[in-house]
Amino acid sequence: MLNSLSGRFLILTTAFVMLAEVLIFVPSIARFREDYLLARLERAQIASLALLAGDLLSDDLEAELLRNAEVFNVVLRRDDMRQLMLSSPIPAPIVATYDLRDATPWVLIRDAMNRLFTPENQIIRVISRPVRDGGELIEITMETRPMRAAMLDYGLRILILSAVISVITAFLLFLAVRRLLVRPIRRVVRAMQRYAESPEDARLIIQPTSTVTELREAEEALQQMQTELTHALKQRERLAQLGAAVAKVSHDLRNILTSAQLFTDRIEASEDPLVRRLAPKLVNSITRAVSLCESTLAFGRADEPAPTLTLVPLAGLTHDVLEAERFASDGAGRVEFVNAVPADLTVRADPEQLFRVLLNLVRNARQAVEATGKPGSVTVTAREADDNWWIEVIDTGPGLPERAREHLFTAFQGRAAKGGTGLGLAISAELVRGHGGRLELARTGPEGTVFLICLPRGEGML
């Protein structure tokens, strides 16, 4: 109970209300003391009126007037004359004099606190102005015990009233907090718990209903997070299903391509010059297709296999990639393929995986140029630095749309062309990471797009 939000709020509310009452109590008790003294002064002034009428008072009557006024003597100054109006024996010396004529609030509070915490009975002198223009000054002598007793009684009543007010206020605030804050928070917690049991069920996504601004913002943020998570889980499920389907297709396709590979061995023996020229390209294409099927099957079981690093002549590998895409182009000759890789540049990489990376990038670049319907070019260039090899794939296409740039290397979300799957760049980025390098978008815009491959130099992986 006390560890709950509403319980702690109840404790804090009670404490703060009591603190506020204490701050009210101090000036209140000072005001009470001032009113008490002024009342005694007024009684003393009224008692002295009998003498002003000219009548002589008996000792008994004078003593009774002083007892009723609760003072020992009364001094009145009128017409610049100071006169002892009523008097009686003073039981002890006067220890302090208080002038109420020009007392500031701070002085009144200080004197009240001193009196409240001084239990001894003392004799004090009090000076003030008479009421109703009864003179220039009135002075009385009195004891402090009755005044302190009255102050304690008044203070106790204030404290009891403050305690009752604080408890009632805290209880009402406790109920308000439970209704306005605790219940909505518990509803959000229950919604999170239900959603956690079945995050794939979109019906369990919270619907914001709170009228409190902060809670509604929290509900809206939770709704967005749950929506994105549900979408991601469904996407993962679809990917798992797709992976199983691709693995099955790749298994059968590998068998078919293996048979085709046997036929190409016989085609290589043909005497036809055209066949002899094209047969090696066909053999290489089928070999790479078989290798891709093997990699797809491995990918269905786990991640991409670790690359087998060898020294690869990059210009020759790039030539094979560009030739493959030249045959796959629309035949209109609008796309120019440029191999700007230095002929003597050799990189340390897995040739099959690097071929797949370059093929994906060049194919995307060729399709981007063809989509414009205008002549353009796809250029592959490379350079060698102290620690890395840098390979650039440059096209003169229209650039990537903003939607594609947001999830560029995320499977099924980074597709730039209509009808694409968004797998090419995701697979390429993973293959490059397997080499210890990185694939990044260097720039894109109306003038074209540049992808940059960074491969680390050295004998091992970074």
From TrEMBL:
SUPFAM superfamilies (UniProt xref): ATPase domain of HSP90 chaperone/DNA topoisomerase II/histidine kinase, Homodimeric domain of signal transducing histidine kinase
Keyword Nucleotide-binding (UniProt): yes
Reactions listed under catalytic activity: ATP + protein L-histidine = ADP + protein N-phospho-L-histidine
Coiled-coil intervals, chain numbering: 215-242
PROSITE patterns referenced in this protein's UniProt entry, alphabetically: HAMP, HIS_KIN
Membrane-spanning residues: 9-30, 154-177
Cell compartments where the protein resides: Cell membrane
The protein's name: histidine kinase
